[in-house]
Amino acid sequence: MSVRDPQPVDRQLPTEEARDLLALVREIAQREIAPRAAEEEDAGRFPREIFTLLSESGLLGLPYAAEYGGGDQPYEVYLQVLEELAAARLTVGLGVSVHTLASYALATHGAKRQQVEHLPAMLGGGLLGAYCLSEPSSGSDAASLRTKAVRDGDEWVIDGTKAWITHGGIADFYTVMARTGEDGPRGITAFLVPGDAPGLSGAAPEKKMGMKGSPTAQVHFDGVRVPDDRRIGEEGQGFSIALSALDSGRLGIAACAVGVAQAALDEAVRYATERRQFGRPVADFQGLRFMLADMATQIEAGRALYLAAARLRDAGRPFAKQAAMAKLHCTDTAMKVTTDAVQILGGYGYTADFPAERYMREAKVLQIVEGTNQIQRMVIARHVAGPEGR
Asked: Could you give the CA distance from residue 9 to residue 84 in angstroms, rounded to a whole number?
């Protein structure tokens, strides 16, 4: 068996424009992102300049309307961009996904005047967003959140703490879900809060096993005043906006997971075709060949699943069940594939000299963020078997 590099992903793209877009993304990923990924992750460095470059290249608002600075791209194209970025460095791919999630509420539920005023800077003006739903005592049970927004004339005063916030402390804007009424999901409202608002502060970033370059932190709101014209949607509509955003966001996580898995497979193939034992490449041994075959099959299945869900979304059809399935399958696949990649590299896979161990550490968080995979199974089961306790 001859030594060879892994074959590039064979993508089915709807237009020539989309093919050109993916070519641009690959160029940026290979030239600007991948070469520094390992060093910067090890140092815990957030690559803000990369996000500035992505914004200047029109890649931070791809699924949103061109009239506000977006790219007018279907989700099936946007997600494949995320996959390419995540394969180069998950901090970047996931960061773009979170920024897109943070922009969702205003782009889909904001008033026209709000969209005209804020979206161009959010989508193409170099700003970076964060999404604030989870709290220290409300993660999976998001409807029990305690952060409050109390009306004071034409303003709202926000007090509370959000937790596990990607880009916490460094974001330029935060989409914040806060309680404005009764307990439960009907008392929650969405707000667009500037990152430099007085009383808003980020705690020290969490010390994580992976994605060390992406800051994850608590965000504190201490009497933060927000004008009513930064309220998104109607009072009490915030939780439904949040759930709708998460359906789309889960597809972003699925695409990122496939990107990490693909990068791990590529590394495993590269090593297995170069490493020789007993006079031949280790990729000639059936045990490893079958592992590579299973890894490739699961990745291809995951890619097909997230794209099928994206096409439903693009067609305006319900896709919540398929989004949960894609998030579940793709992130479980990423965990399995990255673990197998470490195994294929043997002792080298366990060292930081090769990226396989980093992929494995990063894959784990994808089974947790934006709804744990146990929550995804609950969502899927409700679609399949109906609600619990009937």
From this structure: 10
Any residues with CB less than 8 A from the CB of 269 and at least 6 apart, and which? 5, 6, 283, 292
CB atoms within 10 A of CB 332: 18
- Of 242, 234, 230, 261, the residue nearest 141 (C-alpha): 242
CA gap 89, 25 in Å, rounded = 13
Chain-centroid distance, C-alpha 76: 15
Of the residues 76, 83, 357, 370, which is catalytic? Answer: 370
Question: pLDDT by residue (tens digit) across 178-234?
Answer: 999 999 999 999 999 999 999 999 999 999 999 999 999 999 999 999 999 999 999
Is 370 marked active-site? Answer: yes
Q: pLDDT confidence of 389, banded at 50, 70, 90?
A: confident
Going by C-beta distance under 8 Å and a sequence separation of 6 or more, which residues neighbour residue 144?
A: 137, 138, 183, 184
Residues 6+ apart with CB under 8 A from 218: 136, 161, 162, 163, 164, 165, 168, 202, 203
Question: Which residue reads 């330029």 in tokens?
Answer: 172
User: In this structure, what token pair is assigned to residue 370?
Assistant: 């934006």
Q: What are phi and psi of 171, to 5 degrees?
A: -70, 155
pLDDT surpasses 50 at 158: yes
CA 127/CA 234 separation, integer angstroms? 25
Structure tokens at 54: 């992505």
**pLDDT of the residue at 188:** 98
Give tens-digit pLDDT for 307-346.
Answer: 999 999 999 999 999 999 999 999 999 999 999 999 999 9
Contacts of 1 (CB under 8 A, 6+ apart): 273, 280, 281, 283, 284
> Reduced to 3 DSSP states, what percent helix, strand and coil does the chain have, rounded to the nearest 5?
55, 15, 30
> Whole-model pTM?
0.95
Q: What is the pLDDT of residues 82-136, one digit of tens each?
A: 999 999 999 999 999 999 999 999 999 999 999 999 999 999 999 999 999 999 9
Other beta carbons less than 10 A from residue 373's beta carbon: 17
- β-sheet bridge partners, residue 135: 138
